[in-house]
Amino acid sequence: MSEIKKIGMADLNVIKNPGILTTLGLGSCVGITLYDPITKIAGMAHIMLPSSKTIRNNTNAAKFADTGTQLLLEEVLKLGASRGRLLSKLAGGAQMFSFANKNDIMKIGERNVIAVKEVLQELRIPIIAEDTGGNFGRTIELYADSGILLVKTIGHGTKQI
């Protein structure tokens, strides 16, 4: 029986095989996954905002793309993952509401995706798959045995990436 760990908003967790990490209701938030295919160590973060540098109350590192991705990396390495083998998959970053003005500040989902990609690039962790954007929410499940990321959406079905 696989252990299932649920990740809340502004939260992260890591697991070894056999195990499943899941997070519900990714709207503009982004689900970041890291996976080592040899040790079968998996990690997932549910980040809400692009940068901790622009927010005064930034004590929760898992809330932001910059600090959350770094913290997730530290946690999978502590569990025994090899940095050189890590692969990443992303989901979320939707534009959940339409705004009359085209102000970029309101495009939180898009800004989150860009911020996560920048951090992963800096950390030299390849993104091998993503399901981002759109205007619908997602629930994701990461399977430590295979590295498969199951993306479930209402009205858009379920897919594996």
Automatic annotation (TrEMBL):
- Molecular function (GO) terms listed? protein-glutamine glutaminase activity
Taxonomic lineage from the root: Bacteria, Bacillati, Bacillota, Clostridia, Peptostreptococcales
The kind of enzyme this is, by top-level EC class, is: hydrolase
- What Pfam families is this protein classified in? CheD (PF03975)
CDD domains xref list: CheD
Question: Which reactions does this protein catalyse?
Answer: L-glutaminyl-[protein] + H2O = L-glutamyl-[protein] + NH4(+)
Functionally, this protein is described as follows:
Probably deamidates glutamine residues to glutamate on methyl-accepting chemotaxis receptors (MCPs), playing an important role in chemotaxis.
Keyword tags = Chemotaxis, Hydrolase
- What is any one GO biological process for this UniProt entry? chemotaxis
| UniProt-recorded name of the protein | Probable chemoreceptor glutamine deamidase CheD
> E.C. number, please?
3.5.1.44
The question of whether Hydrolase is a record keyword is answered with yes
What organism does the UniProt record list as the source? Geosporobacter ferrireducens
Q: Would you identify the family this protein belongs to, as annotated?
A: Belongs to the CheD family.
Sorted alphabetically, which PROSITE patterns does this protein's record hold? PROKAR_LIPOPROTEIN
